[in-house]
Structure formats: C-alpha cells, structure tokens
Amino acid sequence: xxxxxxxxxxxxxxxxxxxxxxxxxxxxxxxxxxxxxxxxxxxxxxxxxxxxxxxxxxxxxxxxxxxxxxxxxxxxxxxxxxxxxxxxxxxxxxxxxxxxxxxxxxxxxxxxxxxxxxxxxxxxxxxxxxxxxxxxxxxxxxxxxxxxxxxxxxxxxxxxxxxxxxxxxxxxxxxxxxxxxxxxxxxxxxxxxxxxxxxxxxxxxxxxxxxxxxxxxxxxxxxxxxxxxxxxxxxxxxxxxxxxxxxxxxxxxxxxxxx
Length: 259
Known about the structure:
The protein is an alpha+beta fold. About 20% of the residues lie in helices and about 35% in strands. The protein is built from 7 helices and 12 strands. Strands 1, 3, 4, 5, 6, 7, 8, 10, 11 and 12 form a 10-stranded mixed beta sheet that branches. Strands 2-9 form a two-stranded parallel sheet.
C-alpha cells in the first residue's frame, strides 16, 4: 500500500491537486483524528471509509468472512488473483507477526476525491504517513506546522525533540495510494504509477504533486471553498463540513457519522 512517495527536486514544478487543469476536485476529507491501521488492520470498526474493501482485498484478508470468494469483487481487472493465490496469501498473512511488517503503523490524514476531465472517471487519493514506530495520541491538529520549515539538524539539536509526539511526521514524506471508482460503486485499488503519471500529472514528468507533506495539504484546505473535517470525540468519529469565510473557518450543516 501507499507506493507513491513524493519528493521535490528543484528542477520540477510543484502543483497542487486543486491547481491541475486536467482534474476536478469533487470532495476533500481531512482526518484531524487519523484513520489508523496497524499491520494493515484498521483500528476502527464502527466507521469504514469508502476505500476500505478495495484496500482490504489487497492487504487485509482477515476483513472478509470468505476472502477467497469475496476478494476479487473488490479488485480491478486485470489485477484480480486466482483462488490458489488468494488462499496462499490468506494463509501467509495469518502467520505474520507485527515485527514482520517493516512499517506497520499507518496514519491516514486526507482523502482527495477527483474526476479526470477527459474521461469523467472518478478517483480517490489517500494521503498517509507510514511509520516503523507507533505515535501514541496522534492528532494532526496538534502538530506544530512551523517545524516542517525548520531544517532537520536544527530541530534535532533541541533537547525536547525526543518528547515530541510528532517527530516522525516532520521528515517523512506523505505516501499516496490511488483508488478508482468502479461501475459497481466501490472504490478499488488502482495502479499508483499509472494514475500518478498519466491521470494526475497528465503525462507531464516535470510536475510533482504539492501535497507531499501534511502542511502542504493544510495549504490546500485553506484554498478550498469547503471541506469535510473528521475527528473523534468520546470514542466516536464525527464528520462536519467546514466553510472558508472572510472571518475564518466555520462549521456548516450538521455533525454526522459519515462523510
């Protein structure tokens, strides 16, 4: 999962999703309280994001009652697998331990739903961080955004760095996974390289996508007329729509349990 890691060499032009002429942004979701997975297992059970089954079909077979029979219906052709391969993967997965996953802690903080203007096909970019170590009490609204702009060496000279819950975030690149809305209404895991190069960048190899860090994503939210903010309160995930106004961001509509 999350095979596209973003970088920003000086020779390339940075463009944000909302600045690309070839796609139309349909909806943006900000997980202020991240949607968390450990060794591919989602921590939450009450809320399943739109990409959940497409993701689990490739990564977490234990989500299914009958993985071999169900998984291919959530995969895009020709990416489906034979029953033999599915059985082998399910058996292997059941034998894995936490230490077998090199970066088991995944913190999803954003979803960008967009449409390719040429084909009218709909996609979803899932933005997340993957870490080797767990970050307890991760809440993205508590991150000091200014630290993204401080050189790594300077930050690490600060004696308080070891107590910074979010120290892993400042240096790690966002990893992006793309999903495609299929005709049956499910978002299914897409070809990351193909979508990134030929749909998002429209074949222009000199473009890099701006949302390669959390602070870049927040900049995009500031430009959005409205977006959906999600947080957890008293153990329950809540969604609300935020609107940009001259007086700042305000919540509009009702709080709810789905985006």
